[in-house]
Queue: 3 jobs
Job 1
Amino acid sequence: MATVTHRLAVDRVEALEPHELAALCDATNAAIVEGGGFGWVDAQSRAALERHFRGVLLVPERELFVARLDGEVVGSAQLVRPPRNNEAQAFSATLTHAFIAPYARGHGLARLLVRRVEERAAAAGVRVINLDVRATQDTAITLFEGLGYTRWGTHPAYARVNGVTIEGFFYFRLLETPRGRSTGAALGLPE
């Protein structure tokens, strides 16, 4: 039996072609319906999702990354930096809205997506990445903890889905400097 090799790619995008935006909207709705990774509870109209992603591309503090399987957009993530007036937290950023469509999972794209976001963040001077996740998203929790994210807190009423209150977990990860050294000591944290 022949092994199928898929082409995996993650790109930071500043614009989306119409077919890419359509594929991203389809992937987003697939992830929403499956129950994870985006914050919406119900599938959204194409127009609402297009407005959302076009808006993301306009915000200077947001960077959009898309994951591709064999050239087709199947997921995304956003890197969000603090506004310029927040100098005290300028060393940090938030990884948010990370997802891979259910039909594209199992190929290592989620791990590649997170690593590409981290690489971009480190190159831009970010030293800490923060993120949060619903406690019911076991796959995401396993991924982030496997990538070295530290759970630092739990929110007992983090989200409400279909009338049920769900707790959430908060994570951070110290990024390495370009020379491969931990930033913990530079941030005043124990090594």
Job 2
Amino acid sequence: MPGLFRRITKKFFIISNIIVALLFLLGAYGGNFNPQYWWPLGFLTLACFYLLLALFLFILFWFFVKPKWSLISIIAMLLAFKPIIHIIPLRFTAPFEKQKQAENLRIMSWNVEHFDILEHKTHPETKTAMLDLIAEYQPDIACYQEMVGSDSIPEAINYIPDMMEKASFKYYHYSYNPKVDFDGKHHFGIITFSKYPIINKQTISYYPYDYNSIFQYTDIVKDGDTFRVFNIHLQSLKFSSNNLKFIDNPEMKTQEDVKESKKLLYKLKIGFLKRMTQSERIKEEMNKSPYPVIVCGDFNDVPNSYAYNTIGKGLQNAFAEKGRGIGRTFSSISPTLRIDNIFVAQQFEVEQYVRISKKLSDHFPVLTDVKFKK
């Protein structure tokens, strides 16, 4: 009887390990499948980090029980080596020098969450701290998402010329839907600031012309070199407070819990499909660029997703090149969500990268220094 139990237990763990390995591989390469037909794989891309963690635990388990079976997890990891280094770069240190080299171009991307304008009367120090942080790191190019600002009303809380002076920017490109006012004084959109001359601005918008249907590109010249900067914000999940409560404490005890789970799954599915369309449109515009491209933005999706793969194809991801650890950029829901990215063309050399871990918005700002290859 004990022998039978051991055999059954052993088979159970082997089969479980194989299933986890297969799910991990599907999640790691899920971004290569069109969400229009394979949208359920999007859930595996979100779970990929935890599946990878489970494979590590299986390796430890088999090490003490039957080492040869650890090959199941090891082979799966080797097969997914490339996606893994985009999720967790295989480096232990990634120093960042705050003093920028003269020949480098410093780029910042940050979802600024309105610059905390809704809490400005009670907590004006948050906006001050955000502007101080930007001035401290002195980016040459800064791409902000969820930007609330005004370029025409001097008494507005977020008057753009004042913000530019604080960070020593000379030029900007602000994209928004003019039919949508934030509070009568401010617009809501995406903005690119630059210390170098802007020679071309373009806002691209598609039906239904809402916030996530707009993106922009800006042609900038530095030392005779022209490059095109894309600033994007892909479809957000629009989680309600009830959705977030369910994520924090998922239960299936009542009919209401079942309804909440269905709502959550539906929002995730819609997000996968909308980001597919948005990323394909952005890539189409990128392919038209006569200049090397830089892409900054809030992708609202993970590094092994379809949107990430579509936009990042042929480009270098600054975090994958010079970052370390998990690199979380979204401060809520999960500690593994690196959804903000900076991609650069192959003509650039990525010198350094940093995620600034100060919680002033619901996203952490990310910076990279790059330079043109000789």
Job 3
Amino acid sequence: MREAQQNQLLLEAPDGLLAERAADGDIDAFEVLARRYGPLMRVYAAKLLGSDVESDDVVQEAFLTAWRQLDHLTEPQAVKSWLMRMVTNRAIDRMRVRKNHDDIDDYEPPTRSSDDPERLVEAKMQMQALSRALTNLPENQRQAWVLKELAGCSYGEIADTLGLPASTVRGILVRARKTLMHEMEEWR
């Protein structure tokens, strides 16, 4: 019973406390952080890289690095931004290394067998248009848009992840949205 209570307390603990405990070698605290932010990190990496397989590798690398460098984290309460920044850096490293990287256009959204074929074709064409529009965005705009719209990050979290002031993030997102709205006009 006592162990179950401790596990529940750990699950409800704030990020800062978990990061501090993990920095002191508490594997259970680190596991809670990994379960809390792993899915978000994976989705973000997959959108940046266009590959689920590579995103898993990037997230795993980020967690390994995080475990080794937790004692260097100066603001434990900002562990989410710190982890997202690690994923961003690992993903960028991967994109630099590969010469012929997979294009986001290769992404095929999952479909249900009950969908109408015409609707499937239209949805695929719309996703391809969005993928092209995202690919054509400048790197910082694409990263900020993915963090905001797909990962649900706040402006502050995006600013921390990208190492930019929040006011700059707002401007970047305005430009990204404006460009995407223009590019996607025919799909409205």
